[in-house]
Design goal:
The protein is of the alpha/beta class and 393 residues long. 37% of the residues lie in helices and 18% in strands. The chain is globular.
Length: 393
Protein backbone atom coordinates (compact mmCIF):
# COMPACT_ATOMS: atom_id res chain seq x y z
CA UNK A 1 0.00 0.00 0.00
CA UNK A 2 1.34 3.42 -0.93
CA UNK A 3 0.37 6.84 0.37
CA UNK A 4 0.52 10.34 -1.05
CA UNK A 5 2.74 12.97 0.51
CA UNK A 6 -0.31 14.77 1.88
CA UNK A 7 -1.59 11.58 3.50
CA UNK A 8 1.79 10.94 5.13
CA UNK A 9 1.94 14.49 6.48
CA UNK A 10 -1.57 14.13 7.89
CA UNK A 11 -0.48 10.97 9.72
CA UNK A 12 2.58 12.82 10.98
CA UNK A 13 0.46 15.65 12.33
CA UNK A 14 -2.00 13.29 14.00
CA UNK A 15 0.31 10.67 15.49
CA UNK A 16 3.86 12.07 15.84
CA UNK A 17 4.78 14.48 18.62
CA UNK A 18 5.54 17.98 17.38
CA UNK A 19 9.05 18.26 18.84
CA UNK A 20 10.64 19.45 15.58
CA UNK A 21 9.78 22.21 13.11
CA UNK A 22 9.90 20.48 9.74
CA UNK A 23 9.09 21.71 6.27
CA UNK A 24 10.55 19.19 3.81
CA UNK A 25 9.72 15.57 3.07
CA UNK A 26 13.00 14.01 1.92
CA UNK A 27 12.80 10.68 0.14
CA UNK A 28 16.20 9.91 -1.39
CA UNK A 29 19.87 10.73 -0.98
CA UNK A 30 23.13 10.17 -2.83
CA UNK A 31 26.50 11.61 -1.85
CA UNK A 32 26.11 15.33 -1.17
CA UNK A 33 22.52 15.57 -2.42
CA UNK A 34 19.01 14.74 -1.24
CA UNK A 35 15.68 14.85 -3.06
CA UNK A 36 12.24 15.76 -1.76
CA UNK A 37 8.91 14.11 -2.57
CA UNK A 38 8.39 16.49 -5.49
CA UNK A 39 11.70 15.57 -7.14
CA UNK A 40 13.57 18.74 -6.16
CA UNK A 41 17.28 18.25 -5.53
CA UNK A 42 19.07 19.92 -2.60
CA UNK A 43 22.76 20.33 -1.90
CA UNK A 44 23.10 19.00 1.64
CA UNK A 45 25.66 20.60 3.95
CA UNK A 46 23.95 19.22 7.06
CA UNK A 47 24.59 15.49 6.57
CA UNK A 48 22.01 14.67 9.21
CA UNK A 49 23.86 16.97 11.65
CA UNK A 50 27.28 15.42 10.97
CA UNK A 51 25.92 11.87 10.81
CA UNK A 52 26.37 10.86 7.16
CA UNK A 53 29.99 11.98 7.08
CA UNK A 54 30.72 9.74 4.09
CA UNK A 55 27.71 11.13 2.25
CA UNK A 56 24.26 9.70 1.76
CA UNK A 57 24.00 6.01 0.88
CA UNK A 58 27.73 5.42 0.68
CA UNK A 59 28.06 2.22 -1.39
CA UNK A 60 30.49 0.46 0.94
CA UNK A 61 28.32 1.12 4.01
CA UNK A 62 25.13 0.21 2.14
CA UNK A 63 26.62 -3.09 1.01
CA UNK A 64 27.77 -3.94 4.53
CA UNK A 65 24.31 -3.24 5.97
CA UNK A 66 22.53 -5.29 3.30
CA UNK A 67 24.85 -8.28 3.65
CA UNK A 68 24.67 -8.27 7.45
CA UNK A 69 20.87 -7.79 7.50
CA UNK A 70 20.54 -11.01 5.53
CA UNK A 71 22.81 -12.84 7.97
CA UNK A 72 22.12 -11.70 11.56
CA UNK A 73 20.60 -8.46 12.86
CA UNK A 74 20.41 -8.79 16.65
CA UNK A 75 21.28 -11.29 19.37
CA UNK A 76 21.56 -9.04 22.47
CA UNK A 77 24.68 -8.47 24.51
CA UNK A 78 24.15 -11.68 26.45
CA UNK A 79 26.16 -13.23 23.61
CA UNK A 80 29.23 -12.34 21.59
CA UNK A 81 28.82 -11.29 17.98
CA UNK A 82 31.50 -11.27 15.30
CA UNK A 83 31.36 -7.58 14.45
CA UNK A 84 31.55 -5.89 17.86
CA UNK A 85 35.18 -6.79 18.66
CA UNK A 86 36.25 -5.94 15.11
CA UNK A 87 34.72 -2.47 15.34
CA UNK A 88 36.20 -1.95 18.81
CA UNK A 89 39.63 -2.86 17.46
CA UNK A 90 39.30 -0.39 14.58
CA UNK A 91 38.22 2.44 16.87
CA UNK A 92 40.93 1.69 19.43
CA UNK A 93 43.54 1.75 16.67
CA UNK A 94 42.20 5.11 15.45
CA UNK A 95 42.35 6.63 18.94
CA UNK A 96 44.12 5.80 22.22
CA UNK A 97 43.83 2.02 22.30
CA UNK A 98 41.20 1.83 25.01
CA UNK A 99 38.13 -0.26 25.80
CA UNK A 100 34.69 0.56 24.42
CA UNK A 101 31.05 0.31 25.44
CA UNK A 102 28.59 0.37 22.55
CA UNK A 103 25.21 2.08 22.60
CA UNK A 104 22.94 3.96 20.20
CA UNK A 105 23.07 7.76 20.48
CA UNK A 106 25.28 10.61 21.56
CA UNK A 107 23.20 11.29 24.65
CA UNK A 108 23.44 7.62 25.62
CA UNK A 109 27.20 7.62 25.09
CA UNK A 110 27.61 10.74 27.23
CA UNK A 111 25.27 9.34 29.87
CA UNK A 112 27.42 6.21 30.04
CA UNK A 113 30.59 8.27 30.24
CA UNK A 114 29.10 10.26 33.13
CA UNK A 115 28.18 7.02 34.91
CA UNK A 116 31.72 5.75 34.37
CA UNK A 117 33.18 8.93 35.89
CA UNK A 118 30.86 8.83 38.89
CA UNK A 119 31.53 5.17 39.57
CA UNK A 120 35.27 5.77 39.42
CA UNK A 121 35.04 8.91 41.55
CA UNK A 122 32.80 7.35 44.19
CA UNK A 123 35.34 4.55 44.55
CA UNK A 124 38.11 7.13 44.98
CA UNK A 125 37.05 9.19 47.94
CA UNK A 126 33.36 9.66 47.23
CA UNK A 127 34.00 12.20 44.46
CA UNK A 128 31.10 12.60 42.03
CA UNK A 129 31.07 16.19 40.78
CA UNK A 130 31.88 16.90 37.12
CA UNK A 131 33.12 20.26 35.85
CA UNK A 132 31.46 21.08 32.52
CA UNK A 133 31.68 24.11 30.23
CA UNK A 134 29.41 27.07 29.64
CA UNK A 135 27.88 26.97 26.16
CA UNK A 136 28.32 23.20 25.93
CA UNK A 137 25.81 20.63 24.67
CA UNK A 138 25.89 16.99 25.73
CA UNK A 139 22.39 15.61 25.05
CA UNK A 140 18.71 15.56 25.93
CA UNK A 141 18.50 12.98 28.74
CA UNK A 142 18.11 14.38 32.23
CA UNK A 143 21.77 13.84 33.17
CA UNK A 144 23.20 15.09 29.88
CA UNK A 145 20.87 18.10 30.02
CA UNK A 146 22.20 18.87 33.49
CA UNK A 147 25.72 18.68 32.06
CA UNK A 148 24.81 21.03 29.21
CA UNK A 149 25.95 24.60 29.69
CA UNK A 150 23.05 26.24 27.88
CA UNK A 151 20.13 26.86 30.22
CA UNK A 152 17.54 27.19 27.45
CA UNK A 153 17.64 23.44 26.87
CA UNK A 154 16.96 22.75 30.57
CA UNK A 155 14.04 25.14 30.91
CA UNK A 156 10.89 23.33 31.98
CA UNK A 157 12.67 20.14 32.99
CA UNK A 158 13.75 21.18 36.48
CA UNK A 159 15.04 20.14 38.93
CA UNK A 160 18.42 19.54 37.34
CA UNK A 161 20.28 16.37 38.14
CA UNK A 162 22.88 17.34 40.74
CA UNK A 163 26.62 16.99 40.42
CA UNK A 164 27.53 19.39 37.61
CA UNK A 165 29.21 22.82 37.79
CA UNK A 166 30.22 25.08 34.93
CA UNK A 167 33.48 26.73 33.97
CA UNK A 168 34.10 29.16 31.11
CA UNK A 169 35.22 27.48 27.89
CA UNK A 170 38.79 28.43 26.94
CA UNK A 171 39.39 29.96 30.40
CA UNK A 172 41.69 27.60 32.31
CA UNK A 173 41.60 29.66 35.52
CA UNK A 174 37.84 29.21 35.73
CA UNK A 175 38.28 25.42 35.59
CA UNK A 176 40.96 25.42 38.26
CA UNK A 177 38.82 27.57 40.54
CA UNK A 178 36.07 24.92 40.57
CA UNK A 179 38.28 21.96 41.51
CA UNK A 180 37.49 20.75 45.00
CA UNK A 181 37.29 17.61 47.13
CA UNK A 182 34.13 16.43 45.34
CA UNK A 183 35.54 16.82 41.82
CA UNK A 184 35.84 13.61 39.83
CA UNK A 185 36.20 14.81 36.22
CA UNK A 186 36.27 17.62 33.70
CA UNK A 187 34.01 17.19 30.66
CA UNK A 188 34.32 19.20 27.45
CA UNK A 189 33.88 19.23 23.68
CA UNK A 190 37.21 19.83 21.88
CA UNK A 191 35.12 21.84 19.42
CA UNK A 192 31.79 23.10 20.72
CA UNK A 193 29.19 22.32 18.08
CA UNK A 194 25.72 23.47 19.13
CA UNK A 195 27.37 26.31 21.01
CA UNK A 196 28.59 27.96 17.82
CA UNK A 197 31.52 25.98 16.30
CA UNK A 198 34.04 27.09 18.90
CA UNK A 199 37.36 25.20 18.95
CA UNK A 200 39.24 24.85 22.20
CA UNK A 201 42.54 26.70 22.25
CA UNK A 202 45.62 24.46 22.58
CA UNK A 203 46.57 26.22 25.80
CA UNK A 204 43.15 25.50 27.29
CA UNK A 205 42.78 21.84 26.42
CA UNK A 206 46.40 21.05 27.28
CA UNK A 207 45.96 22.96 30.50
CA UNK A 208 42.86 20.93 31.40
CA UNK A 209 44.86 17.75 30.81
CA UNK A 210 47.60 19.02 33.13
CA UNK A 211 45.07 19.98 35.83
CA UNK A 212 43.47 16.54 35.64
CA UNK A 213 46.88 14.89 36.01
CA UNK A 214 47.80 17.15 38.93
CA UNK A 215 44.56 16.56 40.87
CA UNK A 216 43.92 12.93 39.83
CA UNK A 217 40.78 13.77 37.84
CA UNK A 218 39.33 12.18 34.74
CA UNK A 219 39.37 14.16 31.50
CA UNK A 220 36.24 13.41 29.46
CA UNK A 221 35.95 14.47 25.81
CA UNK A 222 32.59 14.66 24.05
CA UNK A 223 33.41 13.77 20.43
CA UNK A 224 29.81 13.11 19.38
CA UNK A 225 29.74 15.88 16.77
CA UNK A 226 33.42 16.71 16.27
CA UNK A 227 34.63 13.10 16.06
CA UNK A 228 34.79 10.53 13.26
CA UNK A 229 36.84 12.68 10.94
CA UNK A 230 34.77 15.85 11.02
CA UNK A 231 37.67 18.13 12.03
CA UNK A 232 40.28 16.49 9.81
CA UNK A 233 41.54 14.01 12.40
CA UNK A 234 39.76 10.83 13.39
CA UNK A 235 38.98 12.54 16.71
CA UNK A 236 39.27 16.23 17.50
CA UNK A 237 41.40 15.75 20.63
CA UNK A 238 44.18 14.58 18.28
CA UNK A 239 44.75 18.19 17.20
CA UNK A 240 46.02 19.01 20.69
CA UNK A 241 48.74 16.47 21.50
CA UNK A 242 46.82 15.10 24.49
CA UNK A 243 44.80 11.99 25.28
CA UNK A 244 41.60 12.01 27.33
CA UNK A 245 40.77 9.38 29.92
CA UNK A 246 37.44 8.76 28.22
CA UNK A 247 35.58 10.03 25.18
CA UNK A 248 32.17 9.62 23.62
CA UNK A 249 31.41 9.14 19.94
CA UNK A 250 28.20 8.72 17.94
CA UNK A 251 26.57 10.45 14.95
CA UNK A 252 28.90 9.53 12.05
CA UNK A 253 30.01 6.22 13.57
CA UNK A 254 27.33 4.34 11.60
CA UNK A 255 26.98 6.86 8.74
CA UNK A 256 23.24 7.05 9.41
CA UNK A 257 22.57 3.82 11.27
CA UNK A 258 22.12 4.49 15.03
CA UNK A 259 25.44 3.59 16.65
CA UNK A 260 27.42 5.18 19.47
CA UNK A 261 30.10 4.31 22.00
CA UNK A 262 32.29 5.64 24.72
CA UNK A 263 35.90 4.62 25.13
CA UNK A 264 38.03 4.60 28.28
CA UNK A 265 41.76 4.15 28.65
CA UNK A 266 42.89 0.60 29.33
CA UNK A 267 43.62 1.32 32.99
CA UNK A 268 39.94 2.16 33.53
CA UNK A 269 38.57 -0.75 31.54
CA UNK A 270 37.22 -2.59 34.59
CA UNK A 271 35.44 0.32 36.31
CA UNK A 272 32.11 -0.77 34.86
CA UNK A 273 31.47 -4.45 35.59
CA UNK A 274 28.64 -6.84 34.64
CA UNK A 275 25.34 -5.46 35.90
CA UNK A 276 26.52 -1.86 36.30
CA UNK A 277 25.71 -0.65 32.78
CA UNK A 278 23.95 -2.08 29.73
CA UNK A 279 22.25 -1.33 26.41
CA UNK A 280 19.79 -3.67 24.68
CA UNK A 281 20.60 -2.43 21.18
CA UNK A 282 24.20 -1.38 21.79
CA UNK A 283 26.69 -2.85 19.32
CA UNK A 284 24.37 -5.13 17.36
CA UNK A 285 25.85 -7.12 14.48
CA UNK A 286 24.00 -4.86 12.02
CA UNK A 287 25.10 -1.55 13.54
CA UNK A 288 28.68 -2.72 13.94
CA UNK A 289 28.80 -3.88 10.31
CA UNK A 290 28.03 -0.30 9.30
CA UNK A 291 30.65 1.03 11.72
CA UNK A 292 33.30 -1.32 10.38
CA UNK A 293 32.60 -0.16 6.83
CA UNK A 294 32.90 3.46 7.97
CA UNK A 295 36.26 2.86 9.66
CA UNK A 296 37.63 0.83 6.74
CA UNK A 297 36.62 3.55 4.28
CA UNK A 298 38.18 6.32 6.35
CA UNK A 299 41.44 4.45 6.84
CA UNK A 300 41.89 2.70 3.50
CA UNK A 301 40.70 5.56 1.29
CA UNK A 302 42.70 8.22 3.20
CA UNK A 303 39.61 10.33 3.87
CA UNK A 304 41.48 12.55 6.34
CA UNK A 305 43.81 13.66 3.54
CA UNK A 306 40.79 14.64 1.47
CA UNK A 307 39.30 16.56 4.40
CA UNK A 308 42.53 18.53 4.75
CA UNK A 309 42.46 19.52 1.08
CA UNK A 310 38.77 20.41 1.10
CA UNK A 311 39.09 22.33 4.35
CA UNK A 312 41.94 24.44 3.03
CA UNK A 313 39.96 25.21 -0.12
CA UNK A 314 36.61 26.12 1.44
CA UNK A 315 38.07 28.13 4.33
CA UNK A 316 40.13 30.11 1.84
CA UNK A 317 37.08 30.87 -0.26
CA UNK A 318 35.00 31.75 2.80
CA UNK A 319 37.65 34.24 3.88
CA UNK A 320 37.31 35.83 0.43
CA UNK A 321 33.55 36.01 0.95
CA UNK A 322 34.13 37.66 4.31
CA UNK A 323 36.05 40.46 2.60
CA UNK A 324 33.07 41.14 0.31
CA UNK A 325 30.17 40.68 2.74
CA UNK A 326 29.97 42.91 5.82
CA UNK A 327 27.44 40.57 7.49
CA UNK A 328 30.19 37.96 8.00
CA UNK A 329 31.72 38.72 11.38
CA UNK A 330 33.92 35.62 11.61
CA UNK A 331 34.65 32.33 9.86
CA UNK A 332 35.84 29.60 12.23
CA UNK A 333 36.08 25.87 12.80
CA UNK A 334 38.30 22.90 12.03
CA UNK A 335 38.35 20.56 9.06
CA UNK A 336 34.84 20.48 7.62
CA UNK A 337 33.18 21.64 10.83
CA UNK A 338 32.52 25.21 9.74
CA UNK A 339 30.87 28.18 11.42
CA UNK A 340 30.04 31.53 9.79
CA UNK A 341 29.10 34.15 12.37
CA UNK A 342 26.45 36.35 10.77
CA UNK A 343 25.14 38.18 13.82
CA UNK A 344 21.46 39.04 13.53
CA UNK A 345 21.45 38.13 9.81
CA UNK A 346 21.73 34.39 10.46
CA UNK A 347 18.01 33.58 10.25
CA UNK A 348 17.64 35.59 7.06
CA UNK A 349 20.56 33.82 5.41
CA UNK A 350 19.42 30.40 6.65
CA UNK A 351 16.00 30.92 5.00
CA UNK A 352 17.57 32.20 1.78
CA UNK A 353 19.80 29.12 1.57
CA UNK A 354 16.71 26.90 1.83
CA UNK A 355 15.01 28.88 -0.94
CA UNK A 356 18.06 28.18 -3.11
CA UNK A 357 17.87 24.45 -2.29
CA UNK A 358 20.94 24.52 -0.12
CA UNK A 359 20.55 22.79 3.26
CA UNK A 360 22.55 24.25 6.15
CA UNK A 361 22.32 24.42 9.94
CA UNK A 362 22.59 27.07 12.61
CA UNK A 363 24.54 26.94 15.88
CA UNK A 364 24.45 29.14 18.93
CA UNK A 365 22.43 32.29 18.27
CA UNK A 366 24.33 33.86 15.36
CA UNK A 367 26.20 31.15 13.46
CA UNK A 368 25.48 29.45 10.16
CA UNK A 369 26.84 25.92 10.47
CA UNK A 370 28.16 23.96 7.48
CA UNK A 371 28.69 20.19 7.78
CA UNK A 372 29.36 18.86 4.27
CA UNK A 373 30.24 15.28 3.49
CA UNK A 374 33.88 14.52 4.19
CA UNK A 375 33.98 13.35 0.55
CA UNK A 376 32.62 16.65 -0.81
CA UNK A 377 34.24 17.64 -4.10
CA UNK A 378 35.30 21.04 -5.39
CA UNK A 379 32.30 21.43 -7.71
CA UNK A 380 29.95 20.90 -4.76
CA UNK A 381 31.86 23.35 -2.60
CA UNK A 382 31.79 25.90 -5.42
CA UNK A 383 28.02 25.42 -5.72
CA UNK A 384 27.64 26.11 -2.01
CA UNK A 385 29.95 29.12 -2.12
CA UNK A 386 28.05 30.62 -5.04
CA UNK A 387 24.78 30.40 -3.11
CA UNK A 388 26.35 31.95 -0.01
CA UNK A 389 27.81 34.74 -2.13
CA UNK A 390 24.32 35.37 -3.48
CA UNK A 391 22.37 35.35 -0.21
CA UNK A 392 24.71 36.85 2.44
CA UNK A 393 24.30 40.65 2.76
Amino acid sequence: MSYTSDELLQMQEKHVMHTYNRDLLLVRGNGSYVWDDKGNRYLDFTMGISVCNLGHCHPRVTQAICEQAAKLVHVSNLFYNENQPLLANYLASMSFGGKLFFCNSGAEANEGMIKFARRWGNAHGGRNQIICMDNSFHGRTLATLAATGRSKYRKGFEPDVEGFVFATFNDLASVEALIGPQTAAVMLEPVQGEGGILPASPEFIQGVRALCDKHNLLMLCDEVQCGMGRTGRYFAYQHYDIEPDAMSMAKALGNGLPLAAFEVRQQYGDVLTPGTHASTFGGTPLACAAGIAVCQTMMEEKVMDQVARSSSYIFGKLKELQERHPAIREVRGKGLMIGIDLGDKVKEVFAACRQNRFLVLTAGETVLRLMPSLLVNQAEMDEALAILDKVIP
